[in-house]
Amino acid sequence: MPSPALPPVTPSPPPGPLYARYWDLRGVCHGWRPAGTRDWLLLYGERGAFTVRPVRGHALQPADPQAFTGGPGDIIIYRPGTPQDYGQHRRDARWRHIWVHWLPRPEVTDWLREWPELWPGVHHVHVHSTHRAPILRELVLTDTALNGRHPHREQLALNALERALLLIAQYVATHHTPAGATPSATAPHLHPHTQRIERAARLLAGDLTQTPALEDLARQHGLSRSRFAALFTQHIGHTPRRYQELQRLARARDLLLYTNQDVQHIAEQLGFSTPFYFSLRFRGHYGHSPRHFRQRARRDAA
Question: Quick check: 249 and 290 in contact, CB under 8 A?
Answer without folding.
Answer: no
